[in-house]
Specification:
The structure is a single chain. By secondary structure, this protein is mainly alpha-helical. Among the domains are: 1-85 and 162-206, Rossmann fold; 210-274, no CATH class; 281-352, Arc Repressor Mutant, subunit A, CATH 1.10.10; 371-483, no CATH class; 663-794, no CATH class; 799-859, Winged helix-like DNA-binding domain superfamily/Winged helix DNA-binding domain (Arc Repressor Mutant, subunit A, Orthogonal Bundle), CATH 1.10.10.10. Helices cover 59% and strands 5% of the residues. The protein contains 44 helices and 13 strands. The strands form four sheets. A six-stranded parallel beta sheet has the order 6-2-3-9-1-10, with helices on both faces. Helix 24 packs antiparallel against helix 25 (464-479). It starts with 9 loop residues before the first helix and ends in a 6-residue tail after the last helix.
Amino acid sequence: MGRAHVIGRTEKVKQLRDLLKETQIVYISSFFYSGKTMLLNQLAQSQNGPVLFFSAGQDDWPAFVRAAKEHPDALLIVDDLQYLSLSEKQGRSAAAITEKQSGSAGNVVDSKDMNTAAGAAEERSGCAWNMRDRQDADNCFFPENRSRAGGQTQRRSDTDTITLRAFLATLPRKQRIVMAGRGKSPMELRALIMTGAAEILDKDFVMFTEEETEQLFLEYGVELIPQDIAWLVEVTWGTPFVLQAIARKKEKCPERSVQAIVPEVFDNIEKLLISDILPAFSEEEKELLFKLSPFDSFEDEMARDVTGLFNAPGLIRGINERSYLIFQQSRDGYRFVPIVQRALFKEMKNLYPGEFIDGLYERAARYYEQNGLISRAIYFYKELKNIQKIRELLLEDTYMRPADGDSVELREAYAMLPEEMIKASPELMKGMCMIESLLGRPEESERWYREISQFIKNTPSEDPRRQAAWEAAAYLDIALPHRGTENILRCLNNYAGLCDSGQYRNRDRGFNTAGNSVSFLNGGKDFSHWVPLGQKITGIVGPPLEKALGSVGKGVCDILTGECDLESSLNGDYRDPLEKVTAGLSRVPGDLEVRCAGIGIQSRILMAEGEADEGIRLMNSLMEDLPLNAPVRLRENLRVHRMTLQLMKGETREPLNWLEMEAPDETRDLIVLDRYKQLLKLRLYIITAQWEKTRLLTIKFANYCNQYNRPYMRIKLHLLQAIIDRRTGTGSWKQEMETAVSMARRFSLVRVIADEGIGVLDMLREMELPDAPWEKSVLRLTRLHAANYPTYMRSAVSRPAFTGREQEVYALLVAGYKNAQIASILALSERTVKHYATKVYQKLGVRTRAEAISRAAELGDVSR
């Protein structure tokens, strides 16, 4: 096997050295196999003075303590601190740690070509160099009784040991110590942290960046495209050891994609987790971990119910403090690290019979069912293939929450039911009808609507299912997203009449009547044609809403009229719309989705008043308060709305990360509930000048707007298309703007244009709009919005976005240095420098060094 390549972590080492000037004790807390040892080795190598290196999994603690006293000027480095803490708790010296934790440099484990991963020795052998074996590491001391024979560390037991707490308390004031371990906050350090004597660096400090990942692969002769690099960092969390294992496999099999290699590497890591990490936990902790492994997330009470361990919450907290197997995501909620969960679950299936696992699923399903988390309960009943229970819960879901975003997530559960079973239930047919519409398949949705109509005709009047079918049809007449708002008032009055006569019993169940642009319910029906009615809306819509929606009807009407006033205001005074929305929210305290729609409108009002920061804070508060069982896509859409507010302020970091990692794929069918995501994605494509990608997305979005009758979204699309045409110099931006202005004027909509501010202001000016009240208001409010948010829609590509390493190569290149000189200065190979130079040329849009220097002069980076 070839030598493991190493990249210098110069910047991280510098940060550590700078931190040690201010702090006596530094503790690096990170994952197993995360490159802590590699970083410590490079820190030791960088020191001019003496260094004393101690590995708690291999070396003798008393010998280290004696050596530290003999060398008070030495930098102390303690690796694998978790083993030292374990030995102290059990009254043993670190030297008595099980032989399982030993290893030697250069050893390998299993046929998968992985470096040995037993304790710190693994990391030194696979990801770095063994300082003891390096000729240039003369300043590094090791405990005298540390010796190797046959590749194994020989340890002597010594129970006469000083505790870590006592040792740290007696450190000379000038002596510095850097420690690393898997615990998040060791007990011995907490008091020192509070006094400022110690500093903790978490996992993010150790993990590789995209640039370091790229450099690592280049050392193996592997050049990756940026998308693959970003994907690797995402799925591996930037873990150096894992990335190196992937790079080595890629070097051996260059024809294989990294996507194909990653599962094999993960499989080996999972085996090492079981063989090398799990033994450090008690039998009771291991039992808990195994029993929770089928669940990616869990809460204290759920863990107690499912595992049968009364002390489960305490065990979970202990594991969380001492390791990175799980993360705490709320006060009593936790989540497994994905690779840990997979490893534990595979091992559990080897240790326990299938009936045992089924019992865990059964208890989890019952727990979620009892707590109203129907979609989660259905997931585990799916694993049990309990069709009858799935049917029961789907019926409950369509009754309790017929229109929320989770219905899309439940489509796999519907697919498990025989079609004849669905056809026998009006509620299930209603669910299928809604799901197909939300998935952008209106023809299939209408097929299920016809099935309901046929069911009504064929079912005797005395059969209670006929009444349920009437109710389902009445609900769908209003709620189906693809039907838009055609005949909506007639349908609403008809529905209200059924409620008023007592024929319809299912009131207060999931209606959206408050949505032009900010609406997160029912696929966001568009009520733009109601806006010109002004104050008449209350009299026309209010009565049927109250009858149809019962207690929340009046609140929904207030929110609806408040949003209409926001959209149509000519003077930019939004106090009245805000009062209406606030009053409406006070009347719907228990309706989560109407509340989210109302608060979304409030945030838009704040944005229109130049207070986008307050709007963002409002959205953050709303998202923090969402209950655990909130619909998944509701939560996602709230975040998308917040990112849209961030774009207004020119803040692009989170939105661009979202674009790279999470945005929906526009090449697939457009899911109606993802419409806000697709609109945000289009804005980001414009900002990053990805013009080819805008074409497919605008076509898909236009089809959705036309098919589902969404004039508000269509106006937005025309405005964004005008920006695209203007910036690319293709097409007719003026025609797009004229269409958008004409549609907005017809519906008395002002903010739909004004909210685009600086993006459309110049085009509005050049159009020479008529000197009429509506046009003057649009121009004035757009100008004001542009002044409030001057960096909105600003191009993110006007200047090349170099990575740190690219910037270094660029600076030296335009300063006149040759590749060989740059390689020497940056301690890189010439091949690596050539790679970065090519990327610099690409980002500058040039082909030669001379052109690069000329372009740098244009940017003001060099003098001509």
